[in-house]
Amino acid sequence: MIRVLIADDQDLVRAGFRMILDATDGIDVVGEADNGRDAVTKAQHLRPDVCLFDIRMPELDGLAATALIAGPDVAEPLNVVVITTFDLDEYVYGALQAGAIGFLLKNAAPELLVAAVRAAANGDSLISPEITTRLLDHVVAPNAPSSLSESPLTDRETEVVAAVARGLSNAEVATELHVSVSTVKAHIAAAMSKLDARNRVELVIWAYEHGLSG
């Protein structure tokens, strides 16, 4: 069972998320918060598998709250998916820098919300497709791809990262490369370590910079 905490200052939004997630097999909403400070307190107490955080909340915004429970200095970080009505690049990048593992707009389809929760629970990133495109356009310089000649990755790790950049899940990568899911996870972990990437999104950025996204 995937345990989820929802934090949003709008009652109707929280109710809508709860209705969608509670109606989904294998997902249980274990708590709600209407401000960022309460969200952090409940997250630290409940230790949910996934936290859904709005960005604009009173007392403590979603980016600051995310940093407190998922940031690089947190000993046992939680999985945070940031959900907002705002799709500005600085919010996306700020959320990822704060430690978020996923980023969705509030107008995303219910199926995408569920997929994001499941992905986050498995340690995978899921970002709305339109957000991914804008993020990459914002972060990746529009230059010719960098050479792979000095890449620290093995050929297999490069294959896995390229597949991740195409949006494949761990299970889909495993099927495509005829290996186990655990092997895929090991390659992803190794690649993240070698590239000093904190999440799959940063792997995707690296892949785009090196011409592996096609």
From TrEMBL:
Single Gene Ontology BP annotation: regulation of DNA-templated transcription
GO molecular function list: DNA binding
Domain Response regulatory: 3-121
Pfam families the UniProt entry points to: GerE (PF00196), Response_reg (PF00072)
Taxonomic source organism: Ilumatobacter coccineus (strain NBRC 103263 / KCTC 29153 / YM16-304)
Entry superkingdom: Bacteria
Signal peptide bounds: none
Ranges of residues in domain HTH luxR-type: 146-211
Modified residues (4-aspartylphosphate): D54
UniProt keyword Lyase present: no
Protein name as it appears in the record: Putative NarL family two-component response regulator
Keyword list, A-Z: DNA-binding, Phosphoprotein, Transcription, Transcription regulation
